[in-house]
Here is the input.
Amino acid sequence: SVIPCDRKDHAALQSALAGARFDGVCDITYAPTTGEDVAALADALAGAPHVLFVSTGRVYDHALPIPFSEATPRGYYWGDYARHKIAGEDALLERQRSRGLPVTIVRPTHVLGPLNTRDNETFFFDRILRGRPVLVPGHGGWLRQFGHVDDLADALVAMLGNPKAFGQAYNVTGEECVTQVGFVEQIAEVLDRPVEFRHFDPALLKRFDKPGPVFGQNLVYDCHAVYTTSKARAELGIRPRYTLASGLRQTWEWYRKEGLDQRPLDFGFEDQLLALLPR
Here is the structure.
């Protein structure tokens, strides 16, 4: 059943969930969701047998050496997003310590797959399919790590109700890392199409009042983002079913099945940027 409610209205949330009982809870939403919002949901679900909080790999201080493990110090490298997620983690862990609420923190990284609300892999499908060049801010050599949405779902199911996971944090993502450019090359291989890269100085974007996305929705970083998932493997036996290539292939099949390859797109901003670059 669906219980409609604005989670940021804490009084309404308490009322909507009064008397509700669940086998487990996965807190996934971010709108943005503050530590107070996370705490309010946990309090409204008093007596829940287990709460999984889907946080993010961005809670780690990305100025530190890679790979990031669950023991890597957290920090606000990623601004308010990291701040809110850290506050959510801390709110739940405090309730475990003070009230005995079983809690597990899950830290995924870039999630790919069908219905992705982040325009990342589909961003490059759109351009490579149409023979358009892919604009790359900077050198494109920063390392990334992607995980498939089905593997994340499998991990959540494996953790729910598992006493081994209580009070723990786990990185959950794929086991391969790839450069920004390498990610796009993998996509081109899946599509069996050539890809042309046009590198540019990110400072050029300052010439535009409202620059559009140029390299997916959230893949433009100036740091490496590599994580170890050895803890989840060793303690819970969790390993992904998808490789990066097979995950991209499955997503590409979904993209075509949904007719997204036929949708109209506006590349006007990219054309303006390309006009500024030397041939």
Notes: The first helix runs from residue 10 to 16. Residues 76 and 194 are 39 Å apart (CA to CA).
